[in-house]
Amino acid sequence: MTRSKATNLILFSIIVAILDGVFKFFALTRLPNEGSRALFPIDFLLHKNPGIAFDIPIPMIIIFLLTLVIVFSLAKFGIKTWKHEPEKSLASALIVIGALGNLFDRFLNNFTTDYIILFGRSAINLSDILIISGTILLLWYTEDRKRRTLSK
Predict the structure, then answer these.
(1) pLDDT value at position 36?
(2) Is 38's pLDDT higher than 70?
(3) pTM for the whole thing?
(4) How far apart are CA 121 and CA 34, in angstroms?
(5) 51 vs 48, 92, 139, CA distance in Å?
């Protein structure tokens, strides 16, 4: 992947994060609460997540501190790998952008606003999708690099 492609994808991710903020506002002001229906494999309802993934309760200060450590570490890694491995930089940027989207939401509301309900059980938002995509890509590109190195 070229750096210009990676740059375009990072800019697209920033737009997705901004859209996520708009959707979170819409969810808070317009969507019914999660317990009200969830009839379909994918539904749009309001879920307020005060913890981390799967509603695991962790004090907010710990979530803020861990998020900041992860964001700064991944940002540093992304900058370091930008020149020679833009794919890893892109993956890192996706995670950072998604994490900052959720962190901003936590700062404003003291919870993360989820609005996509999957199979009546899992609640996510676009920032979560960015984080998951970035994590999968980072693992993929790291493993791919290992395979290429071993095959030489």
Answers:
(1) 66
(2) no
(3) 0.89
(4) 10
(5) 9, 23, 25
